[in-house]
Design a protein that fits this description.
Blueprint lengths: L1 H31 L2 E4 L12 H15 L8 E4 L1
Antiparallel strand pairs: 1-2
């Protein structure tokens, strides 16, 4: 019986530890993703990305949807 209680406690401790690690990881990832681009030609809005990621996404969007048009629009920072 004592072994089962300790196994349950250990399992709970591992679960809580995993949740904390996941929370820290997601907080860091969100902190890095502070930029999103709004297309100047249509209603497209990128997801929250790093600054370079938002720029790359806008360039890819313009190449695919607005070929030959210079990349424009608005950069949103949270």
């Amino acid at each position: 019986m004592t072994g089962q209680i300790m196994d349950g406690g250990l399992l709970c401790l591992l679960f809580v530890g995993a949740v904390i690690v996941l929370f820290i990881h997601l907080s860091r990832e969100r902190r890095d993703r502070q930029y999103r681009r709004h297309c100047g030609e249509c209603r497209y809005i990128s997801g929250w990305l790093t600054e370079s990621g938002a720029d790359e996404d806008a360039e890819a969007h313009y190449r695919a949807k607005h070929h030959g048009v210079e990349v424009g629009g608005v950069v949103e920072v949270r």
